[in-house]
Specification:
Elements lengths: L2 H18 L17 H10 L5 H20 L9 H9 L1 H4 L2 H17 L4 H31 L3 H13 L9 H13 L7 H9 L2 H6 L13 H11 L8 H10 L3 E3 L18 E3 L2 E3 L9 E3 L2 E3 L4 H12 L2 H15 L6 H13 L4 H9 L3 H4 L7 H13 L8 H9 L23 H16 L23 H7 L5 H8 L4 H10 L1 H4 L2
């Protein structure tokens, strides 16, 4: 069948399924250990980036509640395959500290600056820019490898969610040198903890401070950008009741919150200011740059006294009912439905308030809910599609080259750290159902189905490993085949080869919806 005809067929099928997506599916209790039904498959596909044999085995062994509790406690049995762990730790971006990376960048920039105008200066500037691009690609690869092979698939999805929620744009400033630290020490380390701690970690992150310009926010030179987005995008949401005056007051509270200088010159603080300096790694609160006036923020008076103002302001924000509502709805939209059930969001928000913003507790309310299985099917965004395709196709087999994953997300319009605006990529499936998107997905499905991916060719090598994945495995027959729709079965029956069959499955509406 011609490629264009297939894309047209798949587009039609997708639109038909979209029309059915609002129809509730039948709820079902988790089955006994060892049994696997359609509700179990739906739950696992919502819980992680698709399924592989290890996921199904853990689910059968632990049961739904046991697996969920292990995930939320971050104690899921298993680890990264040794080859994948070695690849991640082999990247300069992940095995070099951020202060070292930024120090090397500063030295390279100073050396280039000292050169006279001409080809040598241009080459020096090009070299450090290219190095930044390499570090960015390494950070992207490291995160995508974690997403594919991490045994705690709920956490892997959640890490992507928070990276998108607290989005940063890699090409800006020095962010390329800061990405690996941001994803590992800021987001991943706090993904399942208290929401307040996650907000504070992002607030103290050089990547966030550079992206939203708070590193330039100082007394007499106030920059409101981060203050606005902290409330509008990160915590409270649009229309939650805060005013422009609250933005202005929060911006004053955030003056002096920035990054320690890299020039090696000593900083001078007088006897009054010195005790007020706060520094964690490269994060620095500089009292010389802070506005110490008293503020009124969200109706509460905050006495001017330094970094404690920031902590008090964040406490005030995360205790707002609007914060519980906004974060709960964002999570429900990502995990459940484009328009999540209000009753579920209300229960999640109640859990958020009762637990002081405990992310794991809120997720337990979500993933233990009836609505997770009864709110219709959800179209996968590009990251879920790519991660799920690779996980199903290779079923835990370590790849040698993660760059194709990076390039596929570029082609699908959802590159990691590639959103130039701070609002993150859309969470709703409707944003990803255009005809161009479906055509590109088919091309990627065909590349994976035919084995034409470079995934098993180490970077720089010209030797290609031949062969294509066999998706007709025990995993397929046990967990997937019994639950396929007639549309997908008919398409698979028309395949003329195993490669074509692989392609049809990965490009099918059943696979692209979950």
């Amino acid at each position: 069948m011609h490629c264009r005809a297939l894309v047209s067929l798949l587009t039609t099928a997708t639109l038909l399924l979209a029309a059915c997506a609002s129809q509730p599916t039948q709820a079902g209790a988790p089955t006994a250990h060892g049994v696997f039904n359609g509700n179990d498959l739906t739950w696992l596909r919502r819980d992680g980036f698709g399924v592989d044999s290890a996921d199904v085995a853990r689910y059968r062994k632990l049961g739904r509640e046991g697996l969920l509790n292990a995930q939320l406690a971050d104690r899921v049995p298993g680890s990264l395959p040794p080859q994948i762990a070695e690849a991640i730790h082999g990247f300069e971006a992940t095995n070099t500290s951020m202060p070292q990376l930024l120090g090397d960048l500063y030295n390279a920039q100073q050396q280039a600056k000292a050169l006279p105008a001409g080809p040598e200066k241009d080459a020096a500037n090009k070299a450090w820019q290219q190095h930044g691009n390499e570090l960015m690609q390494q950070a992207r690869q490291a995160e995508l490898l974690q997403a594919v092979y991490g045994p705690n698939q709920l956490k892997e999805q959640l890490v992507w969610f928070w990276l998108n929620h607290f989005s940063v744009y890699a090409p800006k400033g020095r962010i390329r040198w800061e990405l690996a630290d941001y994803q590992q020490e800021v987001i991943r380390a706090h993904a399942l903890g208290k929401f307040r701690d996650l907000v504070m970690a992002t607030l103290e992150s050089p990547a966030m401070l550079e992206f939203l310009d708070n590193a330039q926010n100082a007394k007499g030179h106030v920059n409101e950008n981060y203050a606005r987005e902290l409330m509008e995008l990160h915590t409270l949401g649009v229309g939650s009741g805060y005013t422009q005056q609250d933005v202005q007051q929060l911006a004053l509270i955030l003056t002096g919150v920035g990054i320690a200088p890299m020039d090696g010159k000593p900083q001078h603080f007088d006897a009054k200011a010195a005790p007020l300096v706060v520094q964690h790694g490269l994060f620095q609160f500089n009292p010389n740059r802070h506005d110490f006036s008293d503020k009124v923020f969200l109706g509460q008076r905050i006495k001017g006294r330094g970094f404690d103002e920031v902590k008090q302001a964040v406490d005030i924000i995360v205790r707002q009912p609007a914060c519980a509502q906004f974060i709960s709805r964002q999570l429900a939209q990502y995990f459940v439905a484009d328009n999540p059930p209000p009753a579920l969001v209300a229960r999640m928000a109640q859990t958020f308030r009762q637990t002081g913003g405990d992310i794991a507790a809120v997720l337990h309310t979500l993933l233990d809910s009836r609505e997770l299985l009864t709110s219709g099917r959800q179209f996968m965004d590009p990251t879920r599609f790519v991660m799920s395709s690779v996980r199903l196709a290779y079923d835990g087999k370590p790849i040698a080259n993660a760059l194709p994953l990076v390039y596929w997300l570029d082609q699908l319009g959802e590159p990691l750290y590639g959103r130039i605006t701070p609002d993150g990529w859309p969470l709703d499936g409707a944003s990803w159902t255009g005809s161009g998107q479906l055509s590109t997905r088919f091309d990627i499905a065909a590349a994976i189905g035919n084995g034409n991916t470079q995934l098993f060719t180490p970077p720089g090598s010209k030797t290609r490993q031949a062969g294509f994945p066999m998706l007709t495995t025990r995993l397929y027959y046990d967990a997937i085949e019994p639950h396929l729709s007639a549309v997908t079965r008919d398409a698979l029956a028309k395949a003329n080869s195993q490669q074509e069959w692989n392609t049809f499955l990965l490009a099918s509406p059943d696979f692209n919806y979950r």
